[in-house]
Amino acid sequence: MHDPDPPFRPVRRRNGGYPPLEDLGLIGDGATTALVGLDGSIPWLCLPRFDADPVFCGLLDRARGGHFTLAPEDLVEARQRYEPDTGVLTTELRGTTGLVRITDALALRSGADLTDDVPATRAELIRSAQVLEGRVRLRMDLEPRGGARTRPLFSGLEVRPSRRPDLRLHLRSNRPLTGLHTTHDLRQGERLDLALSWGRFHRHHRFDAEAVLRATADAWRRWMRHFRYEGPEEPLVRRSAITLKLCDDWVNGSLVAAPTSGLPAPIGGIRNWDYRYVWIRDAAFAVFALRRLGFGGEADAFLGWVLDAFEYGGRPRIMYTADGAPVPDEVEDAELEGYQRSAPVRWGNGATDQRQHDVYGEVLDCADQWLLTGQDIQPSLWASLAHLADTAQQAWRRPDQGIWEVRGQGRTFTYSAGMCQVALDRAAAIGERLGLPGDVASWRASADELRRRILDQAWDEDARTLSAHLDGGGAVDASLRALPLRRVVPVGHPRMVATVSAVAERLSAGDGLLYRYLHEECPDGLPGDEGAFVLCSFWLVDNLVGQGRIEEAEELYASLCARASPLGLLSEQIDPSTGAFMGNFPQAFSHIGIAASGVNLARARAGGRT
């Protein structure tokens, strides 16, 4: 449960000595992120951007992955919290003889405006330790994956990671550094300040960690002045807004699905994917949440990024890198044992070239939202969008891999057909509203017909539900609940109401958690099961709100929010038997769910539209 002032607790280790995901905090600078452990370690940092090769990935191999640790030698217990309304993280670690506070941040430029699409990063990690009580022997270990060469440089050390010849790091401190493994005996009030830089190095610049941390916190708080929300779980929604900003590429305007790769769902399984890329389908959900929290600039930037990526790429892809390039081929890293010994670790993503028909609706929905803000559309872009609508008119009839990116044989998924309906509906709406050329009447007729087909063909009378596949059969998957959210089927339609109930019953993992689908009903080409998918439960909240079942929605929403970590973070999945986090972490989709469902509940209580 999110706790802005948590108690101290023992540092936990799981299979192979790995930290629980719940005991990690996220920091970032709009170009990359790092995870900071309750034990004072940084076991994850990719430089200089989200999807670069990691310098530290001890989270995926404790012995060989590398880490940057700053902690008492005799650590007993610890706690973590964010400085209010910032991405600055503090970790207090208690040893047998004293207490030390470590403040961590990926530093931002003094005066940075986080609403602007220019770099705000200083390309610098600050770690500042101050002894609060007693005496502490503080150990610093900096171990890039594969080792590193060092030499003295500019009152510090130049660090050249062996696996990254392209990367030149600089480590500075307010105390003498004799190498990458040092021990410092500190008394109450004394400090150890460290700065790890990967940008330009300056011989004569004053080293003032406190000033840099202060400027970073100030930049975050200026950005949070735009936050607008009056609804349930307000502190957690505030934190989710910051988490989404940490997953945002501030220059490009895109949002990575998660800042990590290879975290398994479940432990011991092989569903270990690289999520450090941008999925087009995240855009519509993210834009809804961001705009209604007061961050219209970020919403518009993401919409613009989607249209740019589509226009420059020549055809719609389901995912891109943060700067709009194709995602690299998927490879397995045999050197790393995997989180809690769950191999393989993967880089790149093999789903990038899958056929997923929902992408047509995603792009056209983004275009519609973009134009509704008063933006212009160039003839060349409209011609491409119109071609996309024409393609969607036929694509829904063909099998695809679906929203869940199955690695087995394709099917005609109901959700994919629904998103083709969205493509046709939004194209018709744009053409009607702006008087643009194209087969507008045909798109409108096809959209209406496809909605009828979904309600008729996917309906299974015996199971009393819409089916996961357009040819019926009675199997269900949780994406059916997103159909009303995308305005494919009215939320109050009797068949939609019945479907929501059927999904809740048949995909229940207990205590408000839901599976995406049952593997025996909907095989996905991979062995093993998985955990409960957090976003699916937030979709249930939204459907309950739409049906007017507000108290049920509020109860479910509160129970889901209570599953957040003490720092207010959520993973992609949760183990229903233990409550442990699973999958890549933190997951943007889960935090979009916190924000969007909170907004819907607040509007329903106020009597407004959801």
Structural descriptors:
four-stranded antiparallel beta sheet, globular, single chain, twelve-stranded antiparallel beta sheet, alpha+beta, 610 residues, 12 helices
Can you characterise this structure?
The chain is of the alpha+beta class and about 600 residues long. About 30% of the residues lie in helices and about 20% in strands. It is built from 12 helices and 29 strands. The strands form 8 sheets. Strands 1, 4, 7, 8, 9, 10, 11, 12, 13, 14, 15 and 16 form a 12-stranded antiparallel sheet that branches. Helix 2 (about 235-245) runs antiparallel to helix 12. The model has no long low-confidence stretch (mean pLDDT about 95).
Number of strands: 29
| Largest sheet composition | 12 strands, antiparallel
Q: Percent of residues in beta strands?
A: 15-25%
Mean pLDDT: 94
Q: Total helix count?
A: 12
Q: How far from one another are the termini?
A: 26 Å
Structural class given helices, strands, pairing?
Answer: alpha+beta
Radius of gyration: 24 Å
Query: What overall form do the CA principal axes indicate?
Result: globular
- The helix content is 25-40%
- Parts with pLDDT < 50 across at least 5 consecutive residues: none
